[in-house]
Amino acid sequence: LNMTLSSWNAKEVLVWDLVAAADALDPALCPPVEMSLAVKTEPGNTQGQTIQTDQTPNISVCLKPDAAQIKARVNQIFSR
């Protein structure tokens, strides 16, 4: 965890589950945006790809996380 937190930068985050858990505890770390997403199920090179649709929103997503606050919160939790 210490290695990951010390190398965390704005271009790359490799701790998605940890970020999702921090956001679940405090949604202010990344205000939710309502979107409509679907997963391509047709066989081919794009099968499994998540795409945005024009349908009624079906999910809340995190588009602009506060990386500094998430890092601080995770560090606070694990330094106890």
Compact summary:
With 80 residues, the protein is of the alpha+beta class. It contains 3 helices and 4 strands; from the N terminus they run ααββββα. The protein has a two-stranded antiparallel sheet with strand order 1-4. A two-stranded antiparallel sheet has the order 2-3.
What would you say this structure looks like, in words?
By secondary structure, the chain is an alpha+beta fold. The chain is built from 3 helices and 4 strands, in the order ααββββα.
Core attributes:
80 residues; two-stranded antiparallel ribbon; 4 strands; 35% helix
What is the molecular shape? elongated
Q: What's the helical proportion of residues?
A: 25-40%
- The SSE order reads HHEEEEH
DSSP strand content: 15-25%
Uncertain parts: none
| Largest sheet descriptor | 2 strands, antiparallel
Number of strands: 4
Give the overall average pLDDT: 84
Please state the structural category.
Answer: alpha+beta
- Oligomerization state of this entry? single chain
| Distance separating the two termini | 13 Å
Number of helices: 3
Rounded to an integer in angstroms, the radius of gyration calculated over CA atoms is 16 Å
**Order of strands side by side in the largest beta sheet?**
1-4
